[in-house]
Amino acid sequence: MARRPSGAILTWISLDRGSHVSLAQQLKEQLRNAIVSGVLPGGAKLPSSRMLAAEFSISRPTAVLALEGLEAEGFLEMRHGAGTFVAGSVPQHLPRAMAREDAAAGAGAHPQLSEMGARLQDLTIDIEARQARPFLPNTPAYDRFPFALWQKCVNRQTRLGYRSNLGYAEPQGYAPLRKAIANYLALHRSDACHHDQIVITPGAHAGFMLAAMLLTNPGDGILVEDPGPYIARNMFASLGRRIVTAPVDGDGMAFEEILAKDPGIRMVFVMPSRQHPTGTTLALERRLKLLDWAEAHGGWIIEDDYDSEFRYTGRPLPSMHSADRFGRVIYVGTFSKALFPALRVGYLVLPPVLIDMFRNAMALMFRCAPLPSQMTLTEFISEGHFATHLRQMRELYGERRDRFLTVARQVGAGLFHVERPDSGMNALLWLPDGLDDRMIAERAKDAGVHGYALSDYWMRPSARPGLILGFSGVTPQQLEPGLEALARIVADALR
Fold first, then answer.
1. Coiled coil where (predicted)?
2. Segment 204-208 long-range contacts (CB within 8 Å, at least 24 positions apart)
3. Which domains can be identified in the chain, with CATH numbers?
4. Percent of residues, the chain, with pLDDT higher than 90
């Protein structure tokens, strides 16, 4: 039979045996203050009178007297057979608690912040939990995820592996996982790296932050694509780096003129395999020119290999890292799109000269990525489940993309234009000039279509309006009703 919870831990209670105030009264007042201040919330279970007596070396009648007094005042409820609980609401005492909260808030209304703290406070960041929603960009097909196979790997690692691996993991990452990733990159990205070059991070954004912090200084320029991911851009800005933008055309990032004019640029953040949100691929000629710039000027390139796993026409170009002869590229990968974001496992592939520095930084800043996730993922890859899942999702997403395009062009004729993506999980939908895409996105969200406004990705003013819509996670039942609702919203906005 499961043992019942013994109640809240009250280590903060201190009874003064030399006081003229009785022990029962002291206990009663400290418990009452804890309830009023919210330390003990409504519904919290208290220890029994027997346990209170033993904990504070008082007689049981003394503990009973304190508890019964609080029950009489309406602070506690004694439930027969269940125990003693803080009352669900004590409205007559709320003003006092609120006054304390207001005073605390007022005292900290103008805290002394660091420069980085002030930059972060001024940023507008989307920190909502990203649950599965129809048309939400970058959402995998959770309806087709092999949960049974994943659970089998979790169960096996729990039974055999976790018990001997409950301490801190190696900061560089679980060695079997690094080997599995190295094998995957060699086979699927034509990137033959050694597993010692790989550092496991708690997601791709941790890798971006490490690279920017370790390889640039405050005030250095970081060149980013425009339009491009605003979260990475804001993160670099919060670190005090100077954000420089380059336009994106049919051949990807157009960086040549900007790099020539700005010698203060120390790093380029680029998505060569599939630029987000435009979906373009960085042309081979530009890749080679960017590598030459990095070597000639001592610059660094962060290669964000954005959802390169899902390509529907032709073979993808190899990663830039695979063509890097000079050791200037930091390759960043993630499993958030191939599997699911909550896994929180990303990785870096580093030039050998940077390995020790990044490993030390991981140890100091993050200690390690979650080891249970690393171990489960290792088995999932090693047993062949990951490769099978990728093949199945590539086929499924290709089918969902084609159906998305067919329906969007039918219901959106004369209202919006949809680009045909050759890869990835999202489609770019262009709106008529003059429409407010943020307004359209908000109205669409209310109708169950959870796309992103393209304006959020632009830094240049007066850029063309559009929406980013995910198709990979949209079921057939959701597709047509959602796009019809979006077409009605756009039509209403044009009236």
1. none
2. 204/304, 204/332, 204/333, 204/334, 204/336, 204/346, 205/231, 205/232, 205/235, 205/346, 206/346, 206/366, 207/330, 207/332, 207/346, 207/347, 207/348, 208/232, 208/235, 208/236, 208/269, 208/302, 208/304, 208/332
3. 23-86 (1.10.10.10), 146-383 (3.40.640.10), 389-494 (3.90.1150.10)
4. 64
